[in-house]
């Protein structure tokens, strides 16, 4: 992929983290070169602790020796700093506010249900998480119809802010489907998101970043313990 010049640009991430995928997708969309540093957490690296002393979490992007933390903040920074490639946030203030709303909804409300399926130790916990995940995807299906305006992505013709926020979670959705035996995104229940997910996953900016489902499933079992059967 052709890349624009970037001075001293690094991303500290972790392969299983959907949040750590986001800056990498955004930089790929913008055609910007960067150095990727995989965080091992055994123990946490001095660079991570120095760069994000408040939360001590990935992702962190270091641009010209200045660290930027929190995935959605980093994506917005990338959109403002790098003018190569397509814009990630809409130019219209209202559309931009709507995009930020849905990205915040994904992180603050919906994501807990997604991870809840992997964390569930009882059938009741799994059912509650599954209901929240399904209800959230139904809302996102409606949002996609409105925001995309008949085009292929939430961002229109190209990957945008909400695409990155939700699309980074596709690997974990597949894990949730494996653990629950349910299809949360398919052509019957969420036809818009189903076609969108295929487009997003196969895009050059994304396709090499989505983790293998079996590998991610193994990580989830190690991280959260044996799930409910």
From TrEMBL:
Q: What class of enzyme is it?
A: transferase
Q: Which reaction does it catalyse?
A: RX + glutathione = an S-substituted glutathione + a halide anion + H(+)
SUPFAM superfamilies under this entry? GST C-terminal domain-like, Thioredoxin-like
Pfam families with a match to the protein in the record: GST_C_2 (PF13410), GST_N (PF02798)
Q: State the GO CC annotations.
A: cytosol
Keyword annotations for this protein, in alphabetical order, are: Cytoplasm, Transferase
InterPro entries found in the cross-reference section:
Glutathione-S-Trfase_C-like, Glutathione-S-Trfase_C_sf, Glutathione_S-Trfase, Glutathione_S-Trfase_N, GST_C_Tau, Omega/Tau-like, Thioredoxin-like_sf
* Domain of life from the UniProt record: Eukaryota
Name the PANTHER family on file.
GLUTATHIONE S-TRANSFERASE U17, GLUTATHIONE S-TRANSFERASE, GST, SUPERFAMILY, GST DOMAIN CONTAINING
- State the family it belongs to: Belongs to the GST superfamily. Tau family.
Q: What is this protein called?
A: Glutathione S-transferase
Q: Which organism is it from?
A: Thalictrum thalictroides (Rue-anemone)
């Amino acid at each position: 992929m052709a890349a624009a010049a970037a001075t001293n640009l690094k991303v500290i991430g972790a392969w299983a983290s959907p949040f750590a995928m986001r800056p990498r997708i955004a930089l790929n969309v913008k055609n910007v070169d960067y150095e990727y540093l995989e965080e091992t957490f055994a123990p946490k690296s001095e660079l991570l602790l120095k760069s994000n002393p408040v939360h001590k979490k990935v992702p962190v992007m270091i641009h010209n020796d200045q660290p930027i933390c929190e995935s959605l903040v980093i994506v917005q920074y990338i959109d403002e700093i790098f003018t190569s490639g397509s814009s990630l946030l809409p130019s219209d203030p209202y559309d931009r506010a709507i995009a930020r709303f849905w990205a915040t909804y994904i992180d603050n409300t919906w994501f807990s249900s997604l991870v809840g399926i992997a964390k569930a130790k009882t059938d009741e916990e799994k059912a509650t998480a599954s209901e929240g995940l399904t209800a959230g995807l139904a809302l996102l299906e409606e949002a996609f119809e409105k925001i995309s305006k008949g085009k292929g992505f939430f961002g229109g013709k190209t990957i945008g802010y909400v695409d990155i926020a939700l699309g980074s979670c596709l690997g974990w959705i597949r894990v949730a489907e494996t653990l629950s035996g349910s299809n949360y995104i398919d052509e019957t229940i969420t036809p818009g998101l189903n076609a969108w997910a295929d487009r997003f996953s196969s895009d050059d900016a994304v396709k090499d970043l989505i983790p293998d489902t079996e590998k991610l499933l193994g990580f989830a079992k190690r991280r959260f313990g044996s799930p409910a059967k």
